[in-house]
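User: Sequence in, structure out. Go.
Assistant: Echoing your sequence, followed by the structure tokens.
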Amino acid sequence: MLSGVNEPGVDEWGVDESGVKGKSRGAALRYLCATVPALFVSGISILSAVNREVAPDLAQIALDLALFGAGLALMRWRHRFPWQVALATALLTLYSTTAAGPAYVAYVSLCTHRRWRQIVPVALATWLCPAAQILWSDADKLRVVSVTSVTMVTGSVIVGGLTVFGLYLRARRDLAASRRRAALEAQAHRVEQAKLAERVKIAHEMHDVLAHRISLLAMLAGGLSHRTDLTAEQTRETAQAIQENAHQSLNELRAVLGTLRRDGGVEDPQPNLADLDALFDEVRVAGQQVEVADTVDGRELLPAQTGRHAYRIVQEALTNARKHAPGTRVRAELGGRPGQGLRIRMSNPAPYAGSSSPGSGGRLGLVGLAERARMAGGTLSHAVQDGRFVLDVRLPWEA
């Protein structure tokens, strides 16, 4: 949609006005262009008077310069009243030759708005007024016809050139505006992509936390419902474990969801490699059999982000084993050191045969694990070897 007022940032001369210096340069350029015709006409008049030894008409010169000054003053209102200012400065050329400068500048400014209902009548006034000035100011009829013809031809060229120039400047301004819009849209797209990536990360965290806790609760509740040989004390301990896991799942869920509304505050401590022992103890209490071989050297030097990914990978692998191979023994092997990377190898008896991958639910879990490994800059592979499902993850660990 076209507007009668120029868009901020670029004026009708195509000058970047985003800063104070840009505005100053644009104003100086406009007023310089408006003054050049006055200087040219004044110079010609002075040379003619000197060569002919004719005394200048001081009253006429004063009127001419006064109208020129009025035209310069009107220029500052061209944005608010574009066609009015252009028409007024054009009418000034009926009595002032030097007012042609402000009239041309105001006309170019009008052309940048591309409103032809206003441009056409102002163009006619800009073209006819200088010729009309010659008609009523010169008594020599033969000379008037000759000069008027030249003036009208010259005026046609000037008005046509100014129209093309004004439309060109508008095209430049539209191009600059489209580039700014494209840059803003690209920035908005990058921001939206960053938000989407953050939502995906939060979704992964929620999946890992809830899947781990709910599978533990299911295991504990299943044991409680099927076993009839438990003593009252064992039943009480199992119920207490269910209660503790339920509270823990709520706390972890609050911590993950808190990232959605946190506004720059300090994040809650995130689990890392040092918390794996507590994780293993927790699943053992719930009844899962886990064998651990930990040969990690210099674990305190492991970056926090890598440690967090490692913890979530082990947690998800244990959850998948509980879901797809319940009651089997899981072996967790961890090793690595700075400069060599971190390796996580999880294995358990495969509950299926003749396939290197589990069913659809398992594939979804593996997709999540592969994505987390990729986010950490590592790799993930899985296969069935000697009747055991083996998950092998390698994460980078700079020296």
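User: And one key feature?
Assistant: Residues 224 and 235 are 7 Å apart (CA to CA).
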